[in-house]
Amino acid sequence: MEMLSTCIIPPTSRHTHTVIFLHGRGDTAGNFMPSFQEWRDSESRSLPDLFPSVQWVFPQSELRSAARFPAARMSQWFDTWNIAKLHEREELQIEGLRESVTSIRVLVNKEAKRLGGQWENVVLAGLSQGGATAAHTMLSVTRGLGGLMVFSGRMPFPGRTLADTRLVLDLADVPEEDSAVRATPVLVQHCVDDPLSRIKNGREVRDSLSSFGAQVEWREYPTGGHWFHSPDGIQDATRWLRAHVFKENQG
C-alpha cells in the first residue's frame, strides 16, 4: 500500500517517542499542524515545546467522494452521510475507514521500527474524524501502543462488542483477543459546547473503549467548541502523557 504523505515536527532532542496525529474532516495535514502548535498551556507552551524528544507526525487523508454531495471530493478519512445523525447510513463509513486504518497501521509499524521496535513509544491521536479513525486503528493493532488520545471525536459503529466492532472493517492480521487494547492507555477530551461533534459522541467513545477493556481517562470542559481546550486541556494532556507514556513519577 502507498504510504500516506505526512507533515512532521521533528524532535529537538534525541528521538524517543512518536505521536501520529490525525486531522479532522475537511482539513489537511499542512493546515492542521500549525494550528495544533497554537494550542498552549497557561505558560504559553505547546506540546512540542513540552516534549522535545517527540517526533510529531501528521498524516494527510485521501481526497474522497462524498455520497451526499456526488460532485464533491474532500479531504476525509471516511465518508459520513449526516454529521448531525451519525448513525444514519453508517455503512458509508466502512470503505474509507478500512482504507484509512490500513494506511495508519503501516505508518505505526514504520514509526515503531524507527524506534527500535518499541511500539510502546508510539502514540496515536486525532481530532474529530481523525480521532474516530485513530480509535479504530488502535483496536486493530497487534501490540499495545504508548497511548491513544481522542479530541472532539466519536466512535463509528458503537454499541457492539470488540469482536463485532473489528468485524465491521474485517481487516487482516487483527488479533482475536484484547491484550493490545488493555495495554494501551487512552485519553478522551471533549468540550460540552462542541456544535459539530456533540458531547454525547465523546462520552460514547469513552464508554465504548472502556467496555472493550481500555483504561480510559475522560475530561470534559464547559467551553472550547469543536477544538482543543486551552489551557486546561493541554495541561491535562501533558500530565497524562507524562504519567502514562513517559512514565514519569508524578509525585
From TrEMBL:
Which segment of the chain is annotated as a signal peptide?
none
Q: Which Pfam families match?
A: Abhydrolase_2
Listed GO CC annotations: cytoplasm
Q: Where is the Phospholipase/carboxylesterase/thioesterase domain?
A: 7-244
Give the GO molecular function terms.
carboxylic ester hydrolase activity; palmitoyl-(protein) hydrolase activity
Looking up InterPro entries in the UniProt record yields:
AB_hydrolase_fold, LYPA1-2/EST-like, PLipase/COase/thioEstase
**Family as reported in the entry's similarity comment:** Belongs to the AB hydrolase superfamily. AB hydrolase 2 family.
Per its record, how is this protein called by name? Acyl-protein thioesterase
Biological classification of the source: Eukaryota, Fungi, Dikarya, Ascomycota, Pezizomycotina
